[in-house]
Amino acid sequence: MIRERTVNAAILALLVAVPAWAQWADEPFTITLATRVVIFAVAAVGLNIALGLGGLVSLGHAVYFGLGGYAMGVLASHAQNYSPLMEWPLQLDGTKSMPVIWLTAILSSALAAVAIGLLALRTTGVYFIMITLAFGQMAYFFAISWPAYGGEDGLSIYVRNSFPGLNTLIPIQFYGLCLAWLGVVLFLNARLARSSFGLVLTAARQVPQRVEAVGLDPTRAKLVALVISGAITGLAGALFADLNRFVSPTMLSWQMSGEIMVFVILGGVARLFGPVAGAGIFVLLEHLLGGISEYWQLFLGIILLLIVLSGRGGVVGMLSGRGATHE
Amino acid sequence: MSEPLLATRGLTKRFGALTVSEDISIDLRAGEIHAIIGPNGAGKSTLIAQICGALPPDAGDIHILGRDATRLDTRARARLGLARTFQISALAMEHTVLQNALLGCLGARGTPWRFLSDVLRNGHLRSRAEATLERVGLLDLAAVRTAELSHGQRRLLEVAVALTLEPKIFVMDEPMAGLGAEGSRHMTEILSNLRKEAPILLVEHDMDAVFALADRISVLVYGRVVASGTVEEIRADPTVREAYLGEDA
Amino acid sequence: MSAILIVEQVLNGLQSGVMLFLMAAGLTLIFGVMGLINLAHGSLYMVGAFAAAAVAGATGSFVLALGAALVAAALAGGIVELVVIRRLYGRDHLDQVLATFALILIFSEGTRWLFGSFPLYLDIPDWLAGPVTLPGGIQYPLYRLALIVVGLVIAAGLGLLISRTRIGIQIRAGENDREMIAALGVDISRLYTLVFALGAGLAGLAGALVGAIQSVQVGMGEPVLISAFVVIVIGGIGSIKGALVGALMVGLTDTLGGIFLPELFKLFTDPAKATATGSAFASMAIYVLMAAVLVWRPTGLFGARA
Fold first, then answer.
1. Of B209, B131, B188, nearest in space to B163 by CA
2. Which of A230, B25, C75, C166 has the greatest CB tally within 10 Å of its CB?
C-alpha cells in the first residue's frame, strides 16, 4: 500500500507537471481543464472543512459557490457598463480587479454562512441536510426570478478580470493564480485540523455532550467551521466565474451542491488531498466519458455508487489503504 | 461544617404522570465523597442530568459554590467548576488519548479559538494534559487512538478528562460501570485520592466501591431520598435493607 | 382582486399541496421507518410519469396509465431497495446522500437514454377535461378538482393503513423500536422493501397525475423532491399527519405567494418592478416558511423526536 503522504505528493506533482507539459506542448485546452480541477478542488476543500472536520453534511454549498460567482458577475458587469453599483448613501462602482472581487466573494459568502448556519445549526442530522438543501434552492430560485442580473440567462463578462502584475488572459497565468489559492486553502485546512479550534470542532462532531461538559460550545465551533467553509467555497465560485467569464443560476443549483459533495467523497472525506483527487477524477471522467457517450453521467452514477457502497474512504483512502476515518 | 459546594433544594422533575425526582435536597461538602445509590429506575441519572444542566427541573433549585445555578446551562456550570463523567464513556473515539485530555484542558483554562497553531505543540497545555494522564496511569497510551483502548482504560480516561478541568466539584455517573474486580480496585484508589482536591458526588452500583469510598450515602428510591447518612448508618437502616440492599442479600 | 380569483388560487394551492403530500408521505415513511434519507425519491416520481406517458401513448387509456405509473414506480422502488438501498440502512447520512445522488444520475441518464431529451405529453382524458362550475358560479378545471379529491382519498387511505391494519402496526412499531419489531418475529427486511415500494408507488402516482398538467421530462422530479423535503421538515420527519399539514401549507404558500406578493409590491412601486420583485420573493416564500417553523420548533410541527 502507498502511504497517504506519497499519494498527496503525487497529486501535487501532477498539478504542476500536467499544465507545465500542456504549456510546452501548446495545449491550452488541457490548461483550462486543469484550471477547472483546481477551482473545483478549492470549492471542495471548503466543503471538506465543514464536512470532514465538523461532520456538517451541507447539501447547500452551491449557495456560496454561486454567491462568489455573482460577486464576480455583478462587480465586473457594473465595471464594464460604467454604471455605479449604487449611488446612495455612497457611490460604489463596479470593479475588474480580482483581489477586490475575491474579498467581496469571501465576505458575502461568509455572511451568508452566518445567516444559514444560525438557522440550520438549530437542527442536526437529516434536518440539517434538508435545510441546507432548501436554502440552496431559495438562492437558486431567487437568482432565476430576479431580473436585474440576467435572471435565468445569467451574466457574461467580455474580458477576464485583472490581477496586478499578471496577464490573466493567458491560461497558464490564470492557472497559476488558482493553484496558488489551492495551496493557501490546503495549508489553511491542514493547520486548522491540528489547531485548538480543530480539536474542539472534531470533538464536537463526535461527542458534542462532552464538549459542552468541558465548558465549550459545540454549536459555535460548527458555526465558525461553516463560515470558513462557505468563505472558501465562495472564493472558488468567483474564480470559476472568472474562468468561464460567465455566471448563471446553474452555479447555485442543487446539482452543483451535489457535485461539490461528490468531489469530496470521490477523493475521501476528511483527507487533506481528498477533495483535490476527487475534483481531478470528476473532471477527468467528465472529459473522458463525455467523449465516449452522451450519457456519461450514467456511468458517473454507477462509479459513484460503487465507491460509496464499498465504503473504503474514497480514492485516497483506497490507495493509501486506510479505511474511512469516520467510525 | 463548611458551606456546601453543591446543593440541591426541593428538586422535582416529572415526566407526565411519572415523578422521577421528588423534593430532592442533597449537598456535597469539601473533602467528601457523597454516594447516591438506589435500584435501577430510582432516578439517579435524571438527578445527574439536572445537576449538570442537561435537564431543567420543574421545581427546586441547584446551588454551585453558593451561587444559584438552576438556570445556567451545562457550559456555564462547567465553567463554575463542575466536572462530570458519563455513565457511557463520551470520548472522541477518533482522537488519541492525549487529544481527549487536551480537549478538557482547552475547556478549562485554554484557548479554544486558535486556528493556526498546532495544539500538540502548545507546551503548557500539553504538559497539563500529560500530567493528568500520568495520574490515572494512561500516559504510556497518550498517542493511542481512543477507539483502541480497552473498556477499563476508557473509564480511566473519562475520569482524566474531568480532572483536566481542575474542577471544584466532581459529579461521577457510575465510574465503575463494566469494570472487573481489578479495575474497580484501581478506580477506587484513584477516586479516594481525588476527594482531597474536590469533593465527589458519586452515583454508583458497585456496593463494595461505595462502602469503601463514601463518607456519606443517600439512598434514592422512586425519585425520593429515603435515607441519608454515614456508611454505618445506611448499612444499619432497616428501610434501606428492605428497599434496596435486600436485593443483594 | 376578485373573490373568484382567490378561491381559484386556494384550490390551486390545495391541488399542488395534495400532490406534494403523495411525495412527502413516502419520504417521511422511509425516513421514519428505515432512517434513510432518499434523494432518489424524485426519480421515482419521474419513473411514474414516464411509465404513464408510455402506456397512455400505447393504449390510450388514462386509467391503465395511472396503474402503470403505480406499478412501475413501486417495482423500481422495490428493485432499488433490494439492490442498493438496503446496504445503506446502517450507514451515516452522508453515504445515503451520496448513494442516492448517484441513483438520481443513473435514473435521469437512463431515462434520457430510453426516451430521449424531448418532453413527453400525457393528455387529460375526455371525461376529466373541461371546467366544472362550483357553487358561487366559479369555473374550475375538473381535472384539478379530481386531483384534490384523489389526493385526499389517498391521504385518508394511508391514515387508515397506518392506524388500522397489521402492516400499519408494524410500520409504527418500526418507527419506534427497530429491535423490538425484529424480536416480535416480523420479517424486517420484507417490511422495509414493502414500505419503500409503497412510498415509491405513491411518488410514481403523483408523477403521473401531475404529468398530465405539466410536461413529462427528465429532471421533473427534483424540484418536487426538494419541495417535499421542505414539507417534511415543516411537518416533522416521520409524521404522516405532519406531511399532510406541511404539504397543504407549502402548496398554499407557494401558490398564493406567487399571486399576492406581486400585488403587494404594487402598492409600493411601479407594476413592472413589483411583478419582478414580487415573484422573486414569492419563489422564496416556502423556504422562509420553513425557516420560521424551525425557529419556532426545530423538529417540525409534529416531529416528536430530536
1. B131
2. A230
